[in-house]
Amino acid sequence: MARMTMIEAVRSAMDVSMARDDNVVVFGEDVGYFGGVFRSTQGLQAKYGRTRCFDTPISESGIVGTAIGMAAYGLKPCVEIQFADYMYPAYDQLTQEAARIRYRSNGDFTCPIVVRMPTGGGIFGGQTHSQSPEALFTHVCGLKVIVPSNPYDAKGLLIAAIEDPDPVMFLEPKRLYNGPFDGHHERPVTPWSKHDLGEVPDGHYTIPIGKAEVRRSGSAVTVVAYGTMVHVALAAAEDAGIDAEVIDLRSLLPLDLDTIVKSVSKTGRCVVVHEATLTSGFGAEVVALVQEHCFYHLEAPVVRVAGWDTPYPHAQEWDYFPGPGRVGRALAEVMEA
């Protein structure tokens, strides 16, 4: 089986989908000849031509608006927003148009678009290249939201997203593009070529949207995470020597609540980790659900570890980034409660 980085896995997913279905089109800023700022679309224009992989003006609203029109016509656009931080001009199109087409047409129309965007920090991108806006999408009825943590999942989930009849927000943690970053920024990053989840089939396969994965079994405490924070949580559990069960959500909307409830009911403790700012972050929804469904099983209050309620600071990158030290302290807190 081939070994791929997450960049290569994402590119392979689009390649496989474009080869299988002539209605799949890829477009965005610099995705054509240049191959994307992270090279996620490299070679697709040369292989499929300028009508199926092409560059757009610097207009996120125009990119998503065009995709919606194409989808209503019968095409399957997979568009790229160069950084998640740039999606705000397109938020109106996403929330008022794409998310509501099935509802407002009583099922006569769907909107099979995928909006890909690199998300998160850890690359010294500062306040306008490091945001994690996933909670802005999970609040919108009609959107699906995916955040993969590894190349294998990224390819299978992206193909599933492209084949889905409804709009899917596909957030790619850019700090994971080349390796499973665990938050230990002072250490060399292990490349995906040396990680089991770097093994990715060349052909077509899908992973069901809405199904979480238990990355580490344990009985003492449940850690719920997604994206880069999955690897941080695994490192924190290992460093602390705590028998933690780590759940990789993969899909935020729809959410695999059954897996969360089963785990917390077993462990009696829960820590929720995400990189986005704390207040109104997606972790708050997870905490509320755990409280509603697992209250009589809990042995300690649920604890959140997240980014600070401030713009992502360039000069204090690793203070803001929820690293294994902060997660480890949270694990110790719930174990001692």
Automatic annotation (TrEMBL):
Asked if the record carries the keyword Metal-binding, the reply is: no
Gene3D superfamilies tied to this protein: 3.40.50.920, 3.40.50.970
Q: What class of enzyme is it?
A: oxidoreductase
Q: Name one Pfam family in it.
A: Transketolase_C
Q: Which GO terms describe its molecular function?
A: oxidoreductase activity
Domain Transketolase-like pyrimidine-binding stretches: 4-179
- Species, as recorded: Rhizobium brockwellii
Task: Give cofactor(s), names only.
Answer: thiamine diphosphate
User: PANTHER family from the xrefs?
Assistant: 2-OXOISOVALERATE DEHYDROGENASE SUBUNIT BETA, MITOCHONDRIAL, 2-OXOISOVALERATE DEHYDROGENASE SUBUNIT BETA-RELATED
Q: What protein am I looking at?
A: 3-methyl-2-oxobutanoate dehydrogenase (2-methylpropanoyl-transferring)
Keyword Oxidoreductase appears in the UniProt entry? yes
| Keywords assigned | Oxidoreductase
* SMART domains per record: Transket_pyr
- Enzyme Commission number(s): 1.2.4.4
